[in-house]
Amino acid sequence: MGKIDPRVVKTRKKLRQAFLDLLKTRKLSEMNIKDLTNQAGVTRGTFYLHYRDKDTFVETIMEEIIEDFYDSVINYVEFEGNPEKMIPQIVLDRVFEYIGESPEFFITLLKENDAEEYRMLFSDKLYDYILEHVNYGNSIPVRKMPKELINNFLVFALLGIADAWVVEGKIYANHYMATNVAKLFRSELFIEVGLENFFVSDAE
C-alpha cells in the first residue's frame, strides 16, 4: 500500500485537533463544519475532500482516538514466562497521561448521550482485551460474569476517576493515580475472575 500524502496527514491532524479544541466548549450535537474548518484553518472544500459530512468526520475521529488510546496504553507480557503466549495489560500510567492530554474527549465519552455508541465501542474493545488477558488461564470465571456488569463497572469507574482528576486540576501525578487505581482494581472480585494483573502501574 502506498504512502499517504503528507499534506493529507497534516490536514487530518489539524481537523482532529480542531475537534478536540471545540469539545472544550461544545457538545457533539453542536459541532458544525464551519466551526471545525475555522478552528483548523482549512477551507470547507478541503474538509469535503477528506470527509463526506460532519457525521462521517465525527465517527471517524471518535473511532480513531479510541483506537489510538488502546494502542498507547496496552502492553503485552509473557504468560507465565512463555514468550509464545503473550497477554495484554493496561498500563495505568499511560492511561492517565493520555487522558491528561485530551481530557475533553474522555469527558464527552463519559457524559454525553450522543457519545453512547462510542462509549459502547470503548467498552467492547476493553472486553476484547479482558478475554485476551485470561485466554491462557481459566477464562470461565470472567465469562460467567455478565459482560455488562464488569464492563460498566470498569468503564465508568476508570473514566469517572479520570474525570474527577481532571476537574480537580490533575493535582496528583500520573504515577500516583496509576499506583492507587491499580490497587482499587485488585478487589476480591478481580482476583476471582483472573484480572488482578490486568491493570498495572509502570512501577510494577
Would you mind describing this structure in some detail?
The protein is mainly alpha-helical and 204 residues long. The protein has two domains: 6-51, Orthogonal Bundle (Arc Repressor Mutant, subunit A); 62-200. Helix content is 64%, strand content 9%. It has eleven helices and three strands. The chain has helices at 6-22, 33-40, 44-50, 54-73, 92-101, 103-111, 116-133, 140-144, 147-167, 174-184, 188-192, and strands at 74-79, 82-91, 199-200. Strand 1 (74-79) and strand 2 form a beta hairpin. It is elongated. GO terms for molecular function: DNA binding. It comes from Vagococcus carniphilus. The chain crosses the membrane at residues 149-167.
In the predicted model, the low-confidence regions spanning at least 5 consecutive residues are none
Outline type: elongated
Strand content: 5-15%
How many domains comprise the coordinates? 2
Largest pleated sheet: 3 strands, mixed
What are the secondary-structure elements, in order, as H or E?
HHHHEEHHHHHHHE
Helical residue percent band: 55-70%
Structural class: mainly alpha
Distance between the termini: 39 Å
Mean pLDDT: 92
The total of beta strands comes to 3
Looking across the biggest beta sheet, what order are the strands in?
1-2-3
Task: Indicate the radius of gyration in whole angstroms.
Answer: 19 Å
Count of separate DSSP helical elements? 11
